[in-house]
Amino acid sequence: MAAIGKRPGRRRSFGVWRWIILLVAAAYFLIPLYGALKFTGFSAFGTVVSTSGFGSSLWLSVRLAIVTTLITLALMVPTTIYVHLRLPRVRRLLESVTILPIVVPPVVLIIGLLKIAPPALQESPYLLSLEYVVLAMPFAYRSVDAGLRSVDVKTLTEASNSLGAGWPVTLWRVILPNLSTSVLSATVLTVALVLGEYTMASLDLVTSFPVWIVTNDQTSAQASVASSLLALFVTWLFLMAITMIGTRQARRTGRGEVNLFSVTTSTQTIGESS
User: Could you tell me the pTM of the whole model?
Assistant: First the structure.
């Protein structure tokens, strides 16, 4: 009884410490941003936006993010599902392979891809999309893998097959609806990676948005800080837009909610209504 009586106090103390940690983290991130914004002033943002190359570099980064996300999901989602269903013993090997892009330096990846890429693709900025797919593999795979671990994919597949559905129908109408939150989480991570990546774009001589910022930050200190803040705000806007779309869809269907760094699952969805 004494132990039971102490639980409410422990919960209150845990809640207090949680708010303290959140406030310290918020101060750690927001105070420097406020100082940078106060230093630049709002007029510096107009100067940065009107600078030559701003719109083209931003639009190029957005296109690269879209292409990279589509290729990454098209490769990782079916592969991860197939490994979970048919080759569960290969799961650890796949985890080891997908972690290699974090270990291997970007210069090595670029040189290897340039050696095998056709000349027409080497002259295209979309070569970066293939490189970004490699960089996004660790994040996309773990997001999809976490979603598959939260549902009984084997049972859902067997139930769908017993009702006469083929593999394409099972994948599209049974498995993917249960992975919608995980797929959106992988999308958030991939878009954030592409919009903030600098090393590969600069080595490939492609003027993406981060490269444009570094190239044009020598004009003045205020313009340099304003461009960095603008890049941060643009990335936040894209991530929040993806998160809001995922949250609205989750509320309509009763599935998990998508956060920037996690997926909160709720009731399991067996399949889409016909």
Answer: 0.76
Phi, psi dihedral angles at 16 (to 5 degrees):
-65, -45
Q: Is pLDDT of 269 > 90? A: no
Give the CA angle between residues 36, 38, 40 to the nearest 5°.
70
Angle ∠(158,159,162) on CA atoms, nearest 5: 85
Query: Do 176 and 162 belong to one domain?
Result: yes
239 contact partners, CB below 8 Å, separation of at least 6:
188, 191, 192, 260
Q: Which domain holds residue 79?
A: 45-264
Q: Nearest to residue 213, comparing CAs of 203, 204, 194, 226?
A: 226
Same domain, 138 and 80: yes
What mean pLDDT comes out for the span 37-44? Answer: 82
Instruction: Find where tokens 């200190």 sit.
Output: 221
One domain, residues 17 and 50:
no
User: C-alpha angle with apex 273: 272 to 274, nearest 5 degrees?
Assistant: 110
